[in-house]
Amino acid sequence: MPHLPTPLSRLSRRRVLGAAATAAVLPALGAATASAASTAQAASDAATPREALAGGGDLGPNVIVFDPSTPGIQAKLDEIFEQQESAQFGTGRYQLLFKPGTYNGLNAQLGFYTSISGLGLSPDDTTINGDVTVDAGWFNGNATQNFWRSAENLALVPVNGTNRWAVAQAAPFRRMHVRGGLNLSPDGYGWASGGYIADSRIDGSVGPYSQQQWYTRDSSVGGWLNAVWNMVFSGVEGAPAQSFPDPPYTTLDTTPVSREKPFLYLDGADYKVFLPEKRTNARGTTWGNGTPRGTSLPLDQFYVAKPGDSAATLNAALGQGLHLLLTPGVYHLDTPVQVDRAGTVVLGLGYATLVPDGGATAVKVADVDGVRLAGFLVDAGTVNSATLIEVGPQGAAADHSADPITVQDVFVRIGGAGAGKATTSMVINARHTIVDHTWVWRADHGDGVGWETNRADYGVVVNGDDVLATGLFVEHFNKYDVQWNGERGRTIFFQNEKAYDAPNQAAIQNGNTKGFAAYKVADSVTTHEGWGLGSYCYYNVDPTIVQGHGFAAPNTPGVKFHDLLVVSLGGQGQYEHVVNDIGAATSGTSTVPSTVVSYP
Q: Are 308 and 41 in contact (CB under 8 A)?
């Protein structure tokens, strides 16, 4: 194994980018253009009687569809990558779709806001003899800012036997079959901070190398080579045995409840969206033994939204009983997208991005069964929003255990692309909701960043009972990153960094407590459980800041944590304890985790 650098914070990764990378963007779908189009559409909506909206239709110019006979595939892939490679806060959005068949000699390098997917019902229907690559040459070999890109529903036969997927947050690897190995580190084994795999099969070994943390769910691996701080597995065939903290593997035999993300596929010449069924005590992939279990919806049951569509248009489509397919681009909303009908699907392609203007909430879901939100980004607007995503109204109490609401690959950003504010990013009020892979991020670099400039007090607030989070990434909030008020909540894998930019100790003081916990379970809660949870601090503005603990919870037998860690990155700030007053303090300038194997 090569020498691995000590994993540190995103100091380099999040400070260096600056104007040069931000300038490398596509103008075609700019925020101003989208905003103007949205305003014009809204005016048109108000001035004319609304006609029924048609379902189905063209997927738009930023959905690129290939078949094995398409000429110039590699050239097109390279063209998009060149535009998106360093466009971290740009407006370009792309979905690459490959029809079933075999493709030879391709290397699909993925930049920002680029998703690649096969159009078969099974990953093995679409085989690339080649690679789907994420590397970090654009950032001098540092992979810690390789956000917002994804690969789904493909089989890969890597050219050299191993595919490179060196990603950070918000970069899911779903429903993939790698007929070889998978390398999760950048060329040169520089810093990396990922990541998430689900419903995938890697025939060879997975090599995390420099990856600080990773969560793998309901998959199959041929082996797993190493661990740095926090590697978590649930329902993974071939996963290493439980051994936290040395090595730091947290392994659950099964995932309590899961339901895979909806996906677009071709049935003959017709586009459909497949809706995988719910599984309990899940283990392994959904697709290895015959036809996947679930149901399908034809595309004509979806309103195929385009950038510039107003909230009024999207809500009119929902009111007609249509689902929403959000094609790639930036959508400005003056009122929430209101999902009131049970079983509604809102599916984004190519990191479709919703920007709530004027302090609006981007998406609200009623207290109904079976809603599926998947595959889009919410970017806070310049006027403070009380909430950005609200799943279930306040006081929601319906039992959704038979048909839960799922929130999958739904990401939130406050700042970075410009000043944005939100008091609370994501509120889960509905019972039995499954939050399966989210990155909720108050930006620590880019434009519009500062302790008050992109103020955001709370990341995820869970008020509903019986909520399950699998793959929860929440970072840099001014107060609690996660505040859990509901009963019988469960979290499998949590990754957090406290806000780098706190100006001094007083700014983060929480009454008599030094700092707000990364993950706070309310004092009133009697039953809660979490596995494989980590919090890191990097108080580079004032390195003397002390964080009392990473985790806070009532001391009661029903509230249980397994495998907790806190890390001071390079000694910039310190933790006194891990959970409440339990666990040793972090160790000065040494970037070594302090761990607690079991709480209480």
A: yes
Confidence of residue 50 (pLDDT cuts 50, 70, 90): low
- Give CA torsion, residues 231, 237, 242, 244, to 10 deg: 0
- 79 membership: H or E segment, kind and range: helix 73-84
**Strand, helix or coil at 151?**
strand
Paired tokens of 262: 């909806």
CA distances from 579 to 516, 526, 563, 585, 587 (A): 12, 17, 11, 11, 16
Contacts of 506 (CB under 8 A, 6+ apart): none
Tell me the three state secondary structure of residue 47.
Answer: helix
Which residues 6+ apart lie within 8 Å of 246 measured at CB? none
Q: Which of 390, 475, 497, 576 is catalytic?
A: 497
The dihedral sign for the CA sequence 412, 315, 345, 300? negative
Rounded CA separation 574/537 (Å): 7
The strand pairing partners of 435, in sequence order, are 407, 469
**Alpha helices in 24-72, H assignment, sequence order:** 31-47
What's residue 51's pLDDT? 85
Decide if pLDDT at 464 tops 70: yes
Q: What is the DSSP letter of 301?
A: G
Pairing of strands 149-152, 173-174: parallel
Give me the chain's average pLDDT, please.
93
What span, in angstroms and rounded, lies between the C-alpha atoms of 33 and 460? 31
What is the rounded CA–CA span in Å between residue 525 and residue 491?
15
What would the DSSP string read from start to end of 398-434? Answer: ---TTS--EEEEEEEEESBBS---EEEEEEE-STT-E
Interacting residues of 531 by C-beta distance below 8 A, sequence separation 6+: 232, 234, 250, 252, 491, 492, 493, 561, 562, 563
Contact 81, 116 (CB under 8 A): no
Element housing 198 (H / E): strand 196-198
Distance between CA atoms of residues 186 and 182, nearest Å: 12
Token digits of residue 314 = 């999207």
Residue 367 structure tokens: 């207290």
- Neighbour-count burial of 197, counting CB atoms closer than 10 A to its CB (0-12 exposed, 13-18 middle, 19+ buried): buried
Q: Helices 31-47 and 311-319 sit at what angle, rounded to 10 degrees? A: 60
Specify whether the CB–CB gap between 179 and 157 falls below 8 A.
yes
pLDDT > 70 in the chain, percent:
92
Contact 563, 245 (CB under 8 A): yes
Within 10 angstroms of residue 482's Cβ, the number of other Cβ atoms is 28
Q: 82 CB contacts (<8 Å, ≥6 apart)?
A: none
Report the distance separating Cα 297 and Cα 545, nearest Å.
53
Whose tokens are 């993974």? That residue is 236
85 has catalytic annotation? no
pLDDT tens-digit profile of 317-360?
A: 999 999 999 999 999 999 999 999 999 999 999 999 999 999 99
User: In this predicted model, what pLDDT tens digit does every residue of 69-99 receive, in sequence order?
Assistant: 999 999 999 999 999 999 999 999 999 999 9
Taking the C-alpha atoms of residue 497 and residue 45, their distance in angstroms, rounded to an integer, is 43
Distances (CA, A) of 149 to 224, 335, 479: 23, 27, 28
Q: Distance between the two ends of the chain, CA-based, in angstroms?
A: 37
Q: Which amino acid is located at 276 in the chain?
A: P
- All residues at 6 or more sequence positions from 292 whose CB lies less than 8 Å from its CB, including other chains: 121, 122, 274, 276, 286
